[in-house]
Amino acid sequence: MTPPLSIHIVEDEMIIASDLQDMLHELGYQVNGISINYREAIASLRESKPDLVLLDITLTGTESGIDLAHTLNLSFKLPFIFLTSHNDKQTIDMAKQTKPYGYLIKPFEKEDVFAAIEMVIPRLSPQVSGISDQSLFLPHGKGRVKIRMSDILFAEASGNYITINTKTKQFVLRKTLKEAEAEFLTKQNFIRIHKSFVVNKSDVTKITASEVTLSDNRKIPVGRSYLDDLKKI
């Protein structure tokens, strides 16, 4: 199992920082430190580089979270998600210039934090995200489990969630099927056969006008508009 995602919190309100730290621990992430201002954050990040920074836009001192964001981009090459109680156009326009990986409006719930972080993970480096041509890491319990891409039989969509199915396990991700296709269920190995299903090409053993049969004998429905592409595999 891969180590949990390492996150550094930069927040000058210690009650919020402490609550956020508790949320992250409950979600299975590792908190490698809390900083309350620009200078403290720089010193800490030089000592221990996290995978991701949760950064308050408004910080105590002469340098703001926006200033720190520019430094993270230029000197540390670290991804960050902004935390703020301000959602006015001016603040958002300033924040956008630093190209954050996300934006959390206070007050936020644990579910909001989880969604924001999980949406970032596929954009991180392969070593952190766990995505490669041969394998990927998927959330399981309080950690992440490595599975081979070839072990994925199919993915099924349900709203903004998908279920990744192997022969023995299921993994639920907060992600659309379209996003999963762009990130790891690529056309090289997988094919969309229905608005709600993507299957592993190598596991298709039989094709009819209404369904495909997979290597474990499961039958998956075929949408009419996808049949022509399916016949080409």
UniProtKB/TrEMBL annotation:
<dbReference type="InterPro" id="IPR001789">
    <property type="entry name" value="Sig_transdc_resp-reg_receiver"/>
</dbReference>
<dbReference type="GO" id="GO:0003677">
    <property type="term" value="F:DNA binding"/>
</dbReference>
<keyword id="KW-0597">Phosphoprotein</keyword>
<protein>
    <submittedName>
        <fullName>DNA-binding response regulator</fullName>
    </submittedName>
</protein>
<feature type="domain" description="HTH LytTR-type">
    <location>
        <begin position="141"/>
        <end position="233"/>
    </location>
</feature>
<dbReference type="InterPro" id="IPR007492">
    <property type="entry name" value="LytTR_DNA-bd_dom"/>
</dbReference>
<dbReference type="InterPro" id="IPR046947">
    <property type="entry name" value="LytR-like"/>
</dbReference>
<dbReference type="Pfam" id="PF00072">
    <property type="entry name" value="Response_reg"/>
</dbReference>
<dbReference type="GO" id="GO:0000156">
    <property type="term" value="F:phosphorelay response regulator activity"/>
</dbReference>
<dbReference type="Pfam" id="PF04397">
    <property type="entry name" value="LytTR"/>
</dbReference>
<keyword id="KW-0238">DNA-binding</keyword>
<dbReference type="InterPro" id="IPR011006">
    <property type="entry name" value="CheY-like_superfamily"/>
</dbReference>
<feature type="modified residue" description="4-aspartylphosphate">
    <location>
        <position position="56"/>
    </location>
</feature>
<feature type="domain" description="Response regulatory">
    <location>
        <begin position="6"/>
        <end position="121"/>
    </location>
</feature>
